[in-house]
Design goal:
- Helix content is 32%, strand content 11%.
- It has 410 residues and is of the alpha+beta class.
- The protein has a single domain, classed as DD-peptidase/beta-lactamase superfamily (Beta-lactamase, 3-Layer(aba) Sandwich), CATH 3.40.710.10.
Length: 410
């Protein structure tokens, strides 16, 4: 661990409904037994908030307490939240999951991409996980320039043949899809703010607006990438070796924007917070994540989601021709439309109808339609697990096994 700090027990706030005490116990233990610095956890069940807890330090250096309205960078937990914007657009008839991306965005057809479908793109099968050239922050802020860079890419593998985690690029491709299909030409961040965050009153931002008080934002406590070599028992060895090789597809898929190499350093920079990176720089808290997923887990009526769209989110994507081994993560994965799905090694939710996304370092958001549950965990100390960080896992295990009497989580 790169940084640790003792958290007194009186710095735990919030509460839980009757019957959810074991979730609160697990959350408190994160600070005494698992090195947590600052975090929030929330659960919505059947549309009702039943767990809402926060604790520790918003900033472990200054000992500023984590408050009820503290928000933090969620890294890839942003993906699932951002993909709700696409689901809304699909439900409104603006986008069809089985249509070709180029039908909405003709320039996308360059370099053998004309037949790629929206479904393949959102299921990490398009081969577009890395960008050449990798854009810097100024190019990300320039919507038209970023669009040109995205459209000009050649797939790293034949689309549909393999899948590989589009760690950073997925959100930008989703954004261009929405921008070209939306009559108002909104980016994903703007569409999300208007059509998802607004109706649900979510305290989540993709592209942080000036109106948000910066003193609410948690400091991310990160570690140097080389420390992965000391944690090969938790981080897959093939993934760790690949991400430390700057020429590998894995490293090129993760280290975007160009010139900024350490995730925590990036997350604490204002210039990173204000641009839209819908796959990795959403800022929010567990309450908002759980509320968003809770809405989808109970039918999505507040967002106007159709039964067809909801069914598509619950189902696993068509398996790539060459199997489930992820070309970027180097582990077996299953995906849905912007979401991860349970596997034999990665078990979450009460059944395989569950879907969600983890974020680098330990955050997580999931929807469990079979129990009507939305779950969110957001923290500021970066861990080393690709999935199942011991902190969020302990709380999720307490919820699904001890409270809901569902299958054990991993």
């Amino acid at each position: 661990m790169a940084f640790s700090v003792a958290v007194p027990p009186d710095l735990i706030g919030g509460g839980v409904d009757a019957g959810y005490g074991k979730v609160a116990d697990a959350f408190r233990a994160n600070f005494t037994e698992r090195g947590e610095i600052g975090a929030s956890v929330a659960v919505y069940r059947d549309g009702v908030k039943v767990v809402d807890l926060w604790g520790g330090y918003r900033d472990g250096l200054t000992k500023s307490p984590w408050a009820p309205d503290t928000i933090a960078n969620m890294f890839s937990t942003t993906k699932g939240i951002a993909s709700l914007a696409v689901a809304v657009a699909v439900s409104r008839g603006l986008i069809d999951y089985d249509a070709r991306v180029a039908e909405y965005w003709p320039a996308f057809a360059q370099n053998d991409k004309g037949e790629i479908t929206v479904r393949q793109l959102l299921s990490h099968q398009a081969g577009l996980s890395a960008l050449t050239p990798a854009p810097g922050l100024s190019e990300i802020a320039d919507v038209e320039r970023l669009s040109e860079i995205l459209a000009a890419q050649r797939p790293a593998w034949r689309p549909g043949k393999r899948h590989g985690y589009h760690a950073v690029t997925l959100g930008w491709y989703e954004s261009e899809l929405i921008r070209h299909a939306d009559p108002e030409n909104r980016t994903l961040g703007r569409f999300f703010a208007d059509e998802v965050a607004g109706p649900l009153c979510l305290d989540i931002y993709i592209g942080l607006p000036d109106s948000v008080d910066r003193s609410r934002i948690a400091r991310i406590h990160d570690w140097h990438p080389a420390k992965m070599l000391l944690h090969l028992d938790t981080m897959p060895a093939a993934f760790a070796a690949a991400i430390l090789n700057p020429r590998s597809l894995t490293a090129r898929s993760f280290y975007v924007p160009s010139g900024l190499k350490r995730s925590g350093d990036i997350a604490n920079r204002e210039e990173f917070r204000v641009v839209e990176i819908p796959a990795g720089n959403g800022i929010g808290n567990a309450r908002a994540v759980a509320k968003a997923y809770g809405c989808v887990a109970t039918g999505g009526s507040q967002l106007g989601l159709t039964h067809t769209t909801l069914d598509a989110l619950r189902r696993t994507a068509y398996e790539p021709a060459e199997g489930r081994r992820d070309k970027v993560l180097h582990v077996d994965m299953k995906y849905s439309l912007g979401y991860s799905k349970p596997t034999a090694d990665v078990v979450f939710g009460s059944s395989d109808n569950a879907f969600g996304t983890p974020g680098a370092g330990g955050s997580l958001g999931i929807a469990d339609p079979d129990t009507g549950v939305g779950f969110g965990y957001v923290m500021n100390r970066m861990g080393f697990h690709l999935w199942g960080d011991p902190r969020e896992l302990a709380v999720r295990q307490a919820l699904f096994r001890d409270v809901l009497d569902a299958r054990p989580q991993t």
